[in-house]
Specification:
By secondary structure, the protein is an alpha+beta fold. 39% of the residues lie in helices and 36% in strands. The chain has one domain: Gcn5-related N-acetyltransferase (GNAT) (Aminopeptidase, 3-Layer(aba) Sandwich).
Protein backbone atom coordinates (compact mmCIF):
# COMPACT_ATOMS: atom_id res chain seq x y z
CA UNK A 1 0.00 0.00 0.00
CA UNK A 2 1.40 3.37 -1.03
CA UNK A 3 2.11 5.99 1.60
CA UNK A 4 0.55 9.43 1.29
CA UNK A 5 2.10 12.58 2.77
CA UNK A 6 -0.17 15.21 4.27
CA UNK A 7 1.43 18.53 5.14
CA UNK A 8 0.73 19.52 8.72
CA UNK A 9 -0.95 22.93 8.84
CA UNK A 10 -3.91 22.52 11.21
CA UNK A 11 -3.86 22.02 14.97
CA UNK A 12 -5.59 18.64 14.63
CA UNK A 13 -2.65 17.42 12.52
CA UNK A 14 -0.14 18.96 14.96
CA UNK A 15 -1.86 17.01 17.75
CA UNK A 16 -1.67 13.82 15.66
CA UNK A 17 2.09 14.30 15.18
CA UNK A 18 2.59 14.79 18.92
CA UNK A 19 0.54 11.71 19.77
CA UNK A 20 2.46 9.64 17.22
CA UNK A 21 5.75 10.91 18.64
CA UNK A 22 4.86 9.75 22.13
CA UNK A 23 3.99 6.28 20.86
CA UNK A 24 6.91 5.96 18.45
CA UNK A 25 9.60 7.28 20.82
CA UNK A 26 8.65 4.67 23.43
CA UNK A 27 8.75 1.93 20.72
CA UNK A 28 11.96 3.23 19.16
CA UNK A 29 14.21 4.29 22.04
CA UNK A 30 14.16 0.91 23.78
CA UNK A 31 17.45 1.50 25.58
CA UNK A 32 15.83 4.41 27.41
CA UNK A 33 13.12 3.97 29.98
CA UNK A 34 9.60 4.57 28.66
CA UNK A 35 9.40 7.66 30.89
CA UNK A 36 12.60 9.17 29.41
CA UNK A 37 11.46 8.30 25.86
CA UNK A 38 8.13 10.05 26.50
CA UNK A 39 9.98 13.08 27.90
CA UNK A 40 12.12 13.13 24.76
CA UNK A 41 8.96 13.14 22.62
CA UNK A 42 7.54 16.00 24.68
CA UNK A 43 10.77 18.02 24.41
CA UNK A 44 11.17 17.59 20.66
CA UNK A 45 7.68 16.99 19.28
CA UNK A 46 5.12 18.48 21.64
CA UNK A 47 2.25 20.40 20.07
CA UNK A 48 3.90 23.73 20.99
CA UNK A 49 7.30 22.74 19.56
CA UNK A 50 5.77 21.34 16.38
CA UNK A 51 3.55 24.37 15.83
CA UNK A 52 6.46 26.79 16.41
CA UNK A 53 8.67 24.92 13.91
CA UNK A 54 5.94 25.00 11.28
CA UNK A 55 5.26 28.71 11.81
CA UNK A 56 8.99 29.54 11.62
CA UNK A 57 8.81 28.89 7.88
CA UNK A 58 12.07 26.94 7.91
CA UNK A 59 10.46 23.52 8.42
CA UNK A 60 7.65 21.57 6.81
CA UNK A 61 6.15 18.66 8.71
CA UNK A 62 4.14 15.88 7.08
CA UNK A 63 2.00 13.06 8.41
CA UNK A 64 2.63 9.75 6.64
CA UNK A 65 -0.62 7.89 6.04
CA UNK A 66 -1.38 4.41 4.75
CA UNK A 67 -4.93 3.30 4.16
CA UNK A 68 -6.21 6.47 5.82
CA UNK A 69 -4.25 5.81 9.03
CA UNK A 70 -1.32 7.96 10.25
CA UNK A 71 1.70 5.63 10.58
CA UNK A 72 4.47 8.20 11.00
CA UNK A 73 5.71 11.66 10.25
CA UNK A 74 8.69 13.54 8.91
CA UNK A 75 10.01 17.07 8.98
CA UNK A 76 12.12 18.72 6.31
CA UNK A 77 14.33 21.59 7.45
CA UNK A 78 15.10 23.95 4.59
CA UNK A 79 17.21 26.46 6.54
CA UNK A 80 20.70 25.13 5.70
CA UNK A 81 22.16 26.78 2.58
CA UNK A 82 22.41 24.33 -0.31
CA UNK A 83 20.87 21.46 1.62
CA UNK A 84 17.69 19.83 2.86
CA UNK A 85 17.74 18.11 6.23
CA UNK A 86 15.38 15.28 7.05
CA UNK A 87 15.10 16.63 10.57
CA UNK A 88 12.71 13.93 11.73
CA UNK A 89 11.53 10.66 10.23
CA UNK A 90 9.65 8.38 12.57
CA UNK A 91 7.43 5.41 11.76
CA UNK A 92 5.33 3.11 13.87
CA UNK A 93 6.99 -0.28 14.12
CA UNK A 94 4.24 -1.88 12.00
CA UNK A 95 5.03 0.53 9.13
CA UNK A 96 8.77 -0.14 9.00
CA UNK A 97 10.35 -2.16 6.21
CA UNK A 98 7.76 -1.17 3.60
CA UNK A 99 9.80 1.39 1.65
CA UNK A 100 8.26 4.42 3.35
CA UNK A 101 11.60 5.83 4.47
CA UNK A 102 13.00 5.47 0.97
CA UNK A 103 9.97 7.30 -0.41
CA UNK A 104 10.54 10.16 2.04
CA UNK A 105 14.24 10.34 1.12
CA UNK A 106 13.34 10.36 -2.60
CA UNK A 107 10.80 13.12 -1.99
CA UNK A 108 13.35 15.19 -0.02
CA UNK A 109 16.03 14.74 -2.66
CA UNK A 110 13.69 15.76 -5.49
CA UNK A 111 12.69 18.84 -3.50
CA UNK A 112 16.36 19.68 -2.90
CA UNK A 113 17.32 19.17 -6.55
CA UNK A 114 14.36 21.23 -7.75
CA UNK A 115 15.50 24.04 -5.48
CA UNK A 116 19.12 23.88 -6.76
CA UNK A 117 20.44 22.29 -3.57
CA UNK A 118 23.18 19.66 -3.68
CA UNK A 119 23.04 17.93 -0.30
CA UNK A 120 20.59 15.89 1.75
CA UNK A 121 21.39 14.99 5.33
CA UNK A 122 19.98 13.54 8.51
CA UNK A 123 21.05 12.41 11.96
CA UNK A 124 20.27 9.05 13.51
CA UNK A 125 20.72 7.57 16.93
CA UNK A 126 24.06 5.74 16.65
CA UNK A 127 22.60 2.62 18.28
CA UNK A 128 19.80 2.39 15.72
CA UNK A 129 21.25 -0.24 13.40
CA UNK A 130 18.11 -0.31 11.23
CA UNK A 131 18.45 3.43 10.54
CA UNK A 132 22.16 2.99 9.76
CA UNK A 133 21.36 0.17 7.33
CA UNK A 134 18.73 2.37 5.68
CA UNK A 135 21.22 5.23 5.28
CA UNK A 136 23.85 2.93 3.77
CA UNK A 137 21.37 1.38 1.34
CA UNK A 138 20.25 4.84 0.23
CA UNK A 139 23.91 5.85 -0.35
CA UNK A 140 24.27 8.29 2.50
CA UNK A 141 27.83 8.59 3.81
CA UNK A 142 28.61 8.44 7.50
CA UNK A 143 30.13 11.81 8.48
CA UNK A 144 30.82 10.93 12.09
CA UNK A 145 29.20 10.34 15.42
CA UNK A 146 29.10 12.76 18.33
CA UNK A 147 27.33 12.94 21.66
CA UNK A 148 24.42 15.35 22.00
CA UNK A 149 22.58 16.21 25.19
CA UNK A 150 18.94 15.70 24.25
CA UNK A 151 17.51 16.27 27.73
CA UNK A 152 19.21 17.52 30.87
CA UNK A 153 21.39 14.61 31.95
CA UNK A 154 20.48 12.46 28.92
CA UNK A 155 23.07 12.24 26.17
CA UNK A 156 22.69 10.21 22.97
CA UNK A 157 25.32 9.46 20.38
CA UNK A 158 24.05 10.81 17.03
CA UNK A 159 25.48 9.95 13.62
CA UNK A 160 25.39 12.48 10.79
CA UNK A 161 24.61 10.96 7.38
CA UNK A 162 25.05 13.00 4.17
CA UNK A 163 24.32 12.51 0.51
CA UNK A 164 25.75 14.80 -2.19
CA UNK A 165 25.09 14.95 -5.92
CA UNK A 166 26.45 16.98 -8.87
Amino acid sequence: MKAVYKQVTKMSAVAAVSALAREIFVQHYTRLTPRVAAALAEAYQSEDVTEAAIHSGACNTFLICQGGEAVGYFTLDLSAPGAVCIARLFLLEKARGQGIGRGVADYAQKLAEGDGRTRLYLKTWARDLKAADFCKRYRFKNSGTAPQEVLPGVTLELTLWEKYWR
